[in-house]
Design a protein that fits this description.
- By secondary structure, this protein is of the alpha+beta class.
- The chain folds into two domains: 2-52; 56-169, Immunoglobulins (Immunoglobulin-like), CATH 2.60.40.10.
- Helices cover 27% and strands 40% of the residues.
- It is built from two helices and nine strands; from the N terminus they run ααβββββββββ.
- The strands form three sheets. It has a four-stranded antiparallel sheet, with no helix packed on it. The chain has a three-stranded antiparallel sheet with strand order 1-2-7, with no helix packed on it. Strands 4-5 form a two-stranded antiparallel sheet.
- α1 (2-18) crosses α2.
- The longest helix is centred in the first third of the chain and has 30 residues, at 23-52.
- The chain starts with a helix and ends with a strand.
């Protein structure tokens, strides 16, 4: 009720200043100010959400052996950046290793991203305390036959996309 009275006072003052004196003009101005208030509130919430996100990066350690048929493992280093505004607690980090044909290799589960369920190759859980975290994971080939070409490693942090990195394997 206090906000409503405040909006009325603002609208009446604004209309008086602009020479609007009829009831219809006042109602239109109040509606415009209410809509503007809702839009600004939404923008502030969106900015707060963006500021509270945990961001990070991924880097593939280029294998010494570049021949596709000889690769047995792949080392991946990732960093979660420190953020004083982010939440603390358990953070799920997902990695998708995508072959030259666009398929996720050796999927081990699914997670939600932008409303869809997508496959991942590896997952890591991190206890995040707002400070920078740097970790290294190793993916070990099981049944997949790797083919020559460029592979992409996509990195996701609690449902939003981080960075990607690529590596190339020879014939």
């Amino acid at each position: 009720m206090v906000k409503s009275n405040s909006l009325w006072k603002q609208a009446i003052f604004f209309c008086w200043k602009k020479g609007v004196s009829d009831k219809k003009g006042l109602e239109t101005k109040i509606e415009d100010l209410s809509n503007e208030n809702v839009n600004l509130t939404t923008e502030v919430k969106d900015l707060n959400t963006q500021m509270a996100q945990i961001t990070g990066s991924v880097k593939v350690i280029q294998p010494k052996e570049r021949k596709a048929k000889r690769i047995e493992k792949l080392d991946i280093v990732y960093t979660l950046n420190g953020n004083d505004k982010a939440y603390t607690g358990d953070v799920a980090v997902y990695f998708r290793i995508i072959d030259p044909n666009g398929k996720v290799i050796e999927p081990s589960g699914d997670f939600k991203f932008e409303g869809a369920s997508i496959a991942y190759t590896m997952k890591d859980n991190v206890e995040y305390d707002r400070s920078t975290v740097r970790r290294q994971l190793t993916w070990k080939k099981t049944a997949t036959t790797l083919t020559p070409g460029t592979y992409t490693v996509d990195f996701f942090i609690d449902g939003h996309k981080g960075t990607s990195d690529t590596f190339t394997l020879d014939k």
